[in-house]
Amino acid sequence: MGERCISQECLETTGFSYTLSLINGKYKMTILYTLMEFGIVRFNEMKKYIGEISFKTLSSTLKELEADQLVNRKEYPQIPPKVEYSLTERGKSLIPILDGMCEWGDKNRLA
């Protein structure tokens, strides 16, 4: 097997690029981490936990993650409305990546 030549390759066709297309965004990884840590989370709880995210951004980012089948949205027919979010099985398959990022941060954080 010969050496790979960058002039004959394309980043867009890699698994890395596909994964990045799903998790790239200012808050996507934060939302995925939140759901990994706490399991089932309501919208307002997540907003309060994350802090600086706007309601609109949180809502649109959750919709994107749901469309990519990483997050499950469960709505309860009651008043006031109750909506819970959790990771799908596909979303849970990202946990080793999130854990690795947590471990790296713990080991390399400046004191």
Automatic annotation (TrEMBL):
InterPro entries: HTH_HxlR, WH-like_DNA-bd_sf, WH_DNA-bd_sf
Pfam (any one): HxlR
GO molecular function terms attached to this record: DNA binding
Family matches, as Gene3D superfamilies: Winged helix-like DNA-binding domain superfamily/Winged helix DNA-binding domain
Stretches that traverse the bilayer: none
Residue stretches making up the HTH hxlR-type domain: 10-111
Keywords for this protein: DNA-binding, Transcription, Transcription regulation
PANTHER family, alphabetized: TRANSCRIPTIONAL REGULATOR (PTHR33204:SF29), TRANSCRIPTIONAL REGULATOR, MARR FAMILY (PTHR33204)
Protein known as: Transcriptional regulator
Species for this entry: Parablautia intestinalis
